Amino acid sequence: MSLSKRCTAEFLGTFWLVLGGCGSAVLAAAFPNVGIGLLGVALAFGLTVLTMAYAIGHISGCHLNPAVSVGLWAGKRFPASDLLPYIVAQVIGAIAGASVLYVIASGKAGFATSAGFAANGYGAHSPGGYSLAACLTSEVVLTFMFLVVILGATDKLAPKGMAGVAIGLCLTLIHLISIPVTNTSVNPARSTGPALFVGGWAISQLWLFWIAPIVGAAIGGAVYAWLGAGRPEADAAAPVGPAVEPQPRARAAAG
Predict the structure, then answer these.
(1) Is the Cα torsion angle 216, 217, 222, 224 positive or negative in sign?
(2) Residues 109, 111: Cα–Cα separation, whole Å
(3) CATH no. for residue 78?
């Protein structure tokens, strides 16, 4: 599969993640009397990954996340030459998703991005008032575990066809843990889209939601590569990404 098609798939997948996940937080979480609440938002994020895993996993690997792409590279599952194009496509997709969400949300009287617009933050802008150190720890550790699950679920020796379920449920669990802490990032692209519309504090705190997830993902990828080293049965070159067991053409695209 050509790089341009894979990047287009990443754009669409990340667009859906931000529109579906952040959209649930902005539009439905506290809807009067029948809001979906924290559990509903966590499920929404997990469902965006689950649905895209089976929609585009066989095309691009369904990373949807710059940190995941870096972690897969660290885990020796993704070529360095494709990192920048994937990350650019993911960030543009996240901004597009946030743009559509803004158009929808601003159609209601009294809407203001100052209410948060699903942006991530620490300190005074953490939903639960958690410190910078707590938020940094949360993002690094949870992204680390996310990559361990992704790499394990897509390992050649893992059960076939179930990776998307495991990864979607893992992201749901991550949100259940950390929505009160940082509003849950573990994804620099997802953080960037809403932050551009909130501006101010969201932009000034965005650095954390790039650095912490990427550090956690890189460590997770390296650790899993070490855990799996020396197994003659393992297929170190595949898959391209974390979503589903890749088809032959996806393996070929990975080189």
Answers:
(1) positive
(2) 6
(3) 1.20.1080.10
Q: Which of 139, 119, 121 is nearest to 130 (CA)?
A: 121
Identify the CA nearest to 225 among candidates 62, 73, 79: 73
Contacts of 84 (CB under 8 A, 6+ apart): none
Question: Percentage of the chain surpassing pLDDT 90?
Answer: 78
Count of the separate structural domains present in the chain: 1
Neighbour-count burial for 135-161, b at 16+ CB within 10 Å, e otherwise: bbebbbbbbbbbbbbbbbbbbeeeeee
Convert the pLDDT of each residue in 116-169 to its tens digit.
Answer: 899 999 999 999 999 999 999 999 999 999 999 999 999 988 888 899 999 999
In angstroms, the CA 104 to CA 98 distance is 10
Q: Quick count: other Cβ atoms within 10 Å of Cβ 88? A: 15
Q: Residue 243 CA to chain centroid, in angstroms?
A: 12
Tell me if the pTM is above 0.85. Answer: yes
Average pLDDT over residues 86-115: 94
∠ CA 159-164-169 to the nearest 5 degrees?
105
Q: How far apart are the first and last CA of the chain?
A: 11
In the block, residue with structure tokens 């996340």 = 65
CA distance 77 to 153: 13
In eight-state DSSP terms, residue 243 is: S
User: Could you tell me how many helices (H) and strands (E) the chain has, helices first?
Assistant: 11, 0
Q: Are 177 and 91 in contact (CB under 8 A)?
A: no
Residues 6+ apart with CB under 8 A from 252: none
Structural element, H or E, at residue 30: none
15 alpha carbon, distance to own chain's centre:
11
